[in-house]
Amino acid sequence: QVQLVESGGGSVQAGGSLRLSCAASGYTDSSYCMGWFRQAPGQEREGVAALYTGSGDTYYADSVKGRFTISQDNADNAMSLQMNNLKPEDTGMYYCAADPCPLVKSGVLNIATFTRGEPDFGNWGQGTQVTVSS
Q: For residue 69, which of 4, 122, 21, 7 has the smallest C-alpha distance?
C-alpha cells in the first residue's frame, strides 16, 4: 500500500520561503508521477507542480513558475517542493500525490496534461498547511 507523508508547512511573511517534503513508501513501480496540489478555502484544488520520475520531466502552474522548484530525492524515495518569494495567494493546504501514471509512461500524456486533467492521481497524503501573510 502506497503511503505519502507531507512535512514542512508553516506560516511565513510574503517574500519568504518554505520547503515541503513528501516521503513515499510502498511504491513498487520503477517510475511514476508525483505532484503537489493545493487548495484554499472555497476554491478548487490546483495542481502546483509535478514530475515524472522516468524522464525527469516537470510541470509548473503558471502562478508558481520561477518561484517553486520540484525535485526528487532518489536515495530517500522522497519529493520536495522549494517555494521562494511566497505570496499571500499561495496560502492553502498542500497535498502530495503519486500515481503509476501508465498513460504518461506510455507517452499518451505528458506530465502537464496528466496533472491538469483526468485521470487523477490515485494516492494522496494528508496535507500540510501553508500560510503566507502580507
A: 21
Helix (H) or strand (E) segment spanning residue 134: none
pLDDT of residue 48: 97
Closest CA to 56 of 32, 87, 28, 84: 32
Q: What is the DSSP letter of 108?
A: S
Give pLDDT, residue 58.
97
Instruction: Quote the pLDDT of residue 6.
Output: 94
Amino acid, res. 124: W
Give ∠ CA 80-83-89 in degrees, rounded to 5. Answer: 130
The DSSP call for residue 102 is H
Residues of the chain with pLDDT under 50: none
Cis peptide before 119 (omega within 30 of 0): yes
Kind of pairing between the strands at 3-7 and 78-83: unpaired
